[in-house]
Design a protein that fits this description.
506 residues; alpha/beta; Rossmann fold; Biosynthetic Threonine Deaminase, domain 3; six-stranded mixed β-sheet; four-stranded parallel β-sheet
Length: 506
Amino acid sequence: MHDYIKKILTARVYDVAIESPLDVMPRLSRRLNNRVLLKREDLQPVFSFKLRGAYNKIAKLPREMLERGIICASAGNHAQGVALAAQKLGAKATIIMPRTTPAIKVQAVRDRGGRVVLFGDTYDEAYQHARQLEAEKGMVFIHPYDDPDVIAGNGTIGMEILRQHPDPIEAIFIAVGGGGLIAGVAAYVKFLRPDIKIIGVEPDDAASMYEALNQGQRVTLDQVGLFADGVAVRQVGEETFRLARELVDDVIVVSTDEICAAIKDIFDDTRSIAEPAGALGAAGLKKYVERTGVVGRNLIAINCGANINFDRLRHVAERAELGERREALLAVTIPEQLGSFRKFCQVIGRRSITEFNYRYADARQARVFAGVQLTEGEDEKNRIIEALREHGYPVVDMSDNEMAKLHVRYMVGGHAPDIRDEILYRFQFPERPGALLKFLTGMAHGWNISLFHYRNHGSDYGRVLVGIQVPEDERLRFVRYVRELGYPWRDETQNPAYRMFLAGGG
C-alpha cells in the first residue's frame, strides 16, 4: 500500500487534468435527508476521469518507448484520454475501436490526433487486434484499468476528495467497470481514512466485480448489458480485483431505470448530463440511503463521465420516471362494454394517466396497458393495484418488466389467433450494416418471423424483439442457432406482457 500512496502522490496528471470540483447537490440532499456531494470528473477536458490514468502511464514511459508509438483498445473514454496524453507528449497514438463505436466518439479521438482503426464488432475483438499489433509493430499497449500507473493516476481523485472535504464522510460511491477507478480511490482513501466506506456500483446486467467478490475470484460474465457502456466489462482486472478484495466495503447493483433516475437527479442539481456510467455512483448512493436509512451523513458520489450521445436522452427521459417510482405501468383486464374506461379512470382517481394503450380483442374483455403518474412511490402503486382488484379488475404490474418497457408498450393491439408455434426472443443487435442480415440468414432453416419490433435508442446497439414460428421438435436446434449467433438474447415466451397483449393462438 505504501507503494501505491507514493505512486499517487507523485502521479503526473495535472499537465492535462483539472482538480475537479466537489459540488453539493442541494435538491437531492433535501430529498434524502443527507448531505450529498458530487465529484465532477465530467468537467475534465475529455469529459471523463480516464485521462488521469492514461496520462500518468504514458508520461512515465521512457522516450525510446514513446517513440515506438502508443496503442490501446477502447470504445470511448479511455481512447480519448490516451489520444490527448499522446498528443501532449508528442507520441503517435493508434486507437483500435469496434466498428460499432458511435461516430461522435470516433471523431473525438481523431480531433485529438489519434489514428483510429475500426476493427471487430465488440471490445474484445478490438482488444485482441490491438495486442496483435503491439506484438507485430513493437508499440506500447496502454491498458484501460489493470495497470499500477493507471490505477495511481485515478487515485488522485481520492487525494482531491480528502483535501476538499476534511470533515467526516460516511461513504464514497464509485462506478465499477474493470475496477481501475475504485482501486485507485480506495488505495488512497483507506490508507488515510479507513473509517470511510468505499462502495462500488455496477449495473445489474454487468456486475462483474459484484460476482467476483461474492465468489472470491475473478469471473467472466457470459454477456453484459450495454446501456452503461462505459462499464460494460465481462471480467475485472487482476490487480484491480486484488485491491478491491482488500479495500472495498461493498458493491451495490442498480437497474437501468435507477441509472436513468440518477442522470435526472444530476441534471436537476447541476444542469449537466451524465453518461449512464457517470451516474452509477449517484444511483448507488440513493439505494444505500434507502437500504440503510442513514440520515444527516456526508455522502459522496463520483460522476466519472459525460460522454453520452444526444439521441439516447429520449430513452433516459422515458425511464427516469420509472426509476424514481413516479410512474407505474399496469396491465389491466376490463370488461368490453360501454363505460368501462370511465369506470377504470374513476378507480384511478385524480392521478394523471401517462399512457393508455388498447385495442379491441373480443366481445367479452379488453386488456389495456396503462401508465399512471405517482407522487408517493411504491406504496401508492400498491394502493392503486389493490383498489383495481377490489373493483374486479385483474391487474399485472409491468413496472419492472424489461420487455414490456422496451417493446410491448409500443406494440399493444395485436393478438394473432392464427399464429401457431410462436416463441418470443429479445436480442441486442450491434448497430451496423449486416447485423440484421446475419440474423435473417439463419432463418433459412424454415422458421418464419411472425413478430418484429425494433427501436433506435441512439446507442451502438439496437434492442430487437422477435417472434418466430418454431415447431416444438425444432426448439433445441433453434436454441443452438441463437447461441452460435453471438448476440445477447433472452427467451421471453412466458413473459406475461407477451401472453396478455401479443401472443398467438398456438
